[in-house]
Amino acid sequence: MEAVQNEKGQISIHTENIFPIIKKFLYSDHEIFLRELVSNAVDATQKLRQLSSFGEFGGELGDLKVTVSLDEEAKTITVSDNGIGMTADEVKKYINQIAFSGATDFLEKYKDKTDDKGQIIGHFGLGFYSAFMVASTVEIVSKSYRDNAEPVRWVCDGSTEFELTAAEKTERGTDIILHIAPDSEEFLNKGRLQSILDKYARFLPVSVEFDGKIVNNTAPIWTKSPAELTDEDYKTFYKELYPMSEEPLFWIHLNVDYPFNLTGILYFPRIKNELRFQREKIQLYSRQVFITDEVKDVVPDFLMMLHGVIDSPDIPLNVSRSFLQADSNVKKINGYITRKVADKLNELFNADRKAFEDKFDDISLFIKYGILSDEKFWEKAKNFVLLKNTDGVYTTLDEYREKVQANQTDKNETLVILYTSDRKQQHSYIESATRRGYDVLLMDNVIDSHFINALEQKLEKVHFQRVDADSIDKLIDKGLNNESVLSEVDQTKLKEVFEQVLDNKMLNVSVEAQPTDELPVTITMPEFMRRMKDMAALSGEQSFYGNLPATYNVVVNANHPLINKILTEADGDAQKLLVKQLYDLALLSQNMLTGAELTAFVRRTVEKL
């Protein structure tokens, strides 16, 4: 081979200095220099391995690895590999020919990868030149794998000028030596470099050595066949990813090669009853190189509650939001993941119903949110989503309809499903319903108000009523009227007395004939109003219904003996006191009596006793 000729020249760009451009527009992500350089070193190593497999390299591969070295005294960071290496001509071709023609073209090329603050959010593509985000001078010392190749040294101070000379290097491969700039000396810290490698190099396919030890797992379990793996392998890997988390409930191993390539493992954690997405929990890789933990658009929104890893070479490395939203492969991957998750849940339900029921409370939030947000998921989930009643019995939607249809169909042929959102607070109402043979569902999930709305739209002639939304006979109106022991005149008089004593325009007082075993006075909020307020509260946004003052119905039981006592009480003050006492009792049953009002009620009750 021809000896290396000493050479000085201009890098093929038109701007005077690429250094400030890179510095400015990649500043928020400047730690990625190490990922770029290590990834390039891995590529060089894998290329050599491929050439060997093709029979184009007959030498010894040896111990293929990438080494990251820190010299705090010299203020350098070195990334070394024993891969394919470069000749002088290859250095000139791959390093000097930068695909930028100045600041304007640079920004034009990367405009779709900038966020609102102008920061580049596409991480790859700059490759080697990301080194100038942290280095004032960069050296390359390289020796090609080719026979009799001469080692070469390239030096650049971040301007357009470079120097190319012969070098002393006996082993094939490349060393990238960064002379760290004064404003980037934070990277001359062993712990800082270790944390960057832990983030970006954790599962690279070639061994990466730092500080005398290998920092990566070159064969993570998502690269293996499920047939090779045990449950313990999956659990161990989960602990590796999330050392502080509880053991997952179950997992899905993704593996598809058409019409796109994708591998990965998604874990189902125990989901608490709160709608909080920890969007950093699913990690996106491309060929084992970490890209991002912002996987929105790649993963359906309702699956953001899952944990795990997705790896796809079909997701471009220079990820930007606009690309992810528009890319057809990303949309296909999104749909595939939804289908695989639904199929897995259906398989678990059919294989072991009891085990599925045992897990359901931990995954119900996830399933319900999926039903709300994805019609394709609903088509499968309607067969395995479960309803749980106050006795802890689980049923599917079809099973529940069959169970309660005979007793809970109203005069309009609509199936009325009763539920409670708080078993303790609404206990007296639940008891009233069960005395009539009605079944009551427990719907205390944070998104159940939305879920109920969705079911009413998806299921034919079904209406949900919370047990405290109306008097018992009106919750499921079968067209049967109880006879009142009071005349119409007495009922009108009674209504007037209550309205006068309570003196609250937000209370709608009515007198109804109810069974004598019901409370003398009940307080209810109409189902529609309460549900709208619940949904407004969950969204955290101002809304028409959320801002409306609460309106309650006060139902006076005309057939209760205590109500008749109000009418026969001659003393006006005693009559008012009895009305107030019964009203406060109704408030107490709804957990709505607090503060001074509660104290006064207790005092009156003690005095009466």
TrEMBL record:
Binding site for ATP: 36, 40, 81, 86, 101-102, 174, 321
Keywords per UniProt: ATP-binding, Chaperone, Cytoplasm, Nucleotide-binding, Stress response
MF terms (GO), sorted A to Z: ATP binding; ATP hydrolysis activity; ATP-dependent protein folding chaperone; unfolded protein binding
UniProt keyword Nucleotide-binding, yes or no: yes
Any Pfam family the entry gives: HSP90
Domain of life: Bacteria
UniProt key word Chaperone: yes
PROSITE patterns hit by this protein: HSP90
Family: Belongs to the heat shock protein 90 family.
Protein name, per record: Chaperone protein HtpG
Source organism (scientific name): Spirosoma foliorum
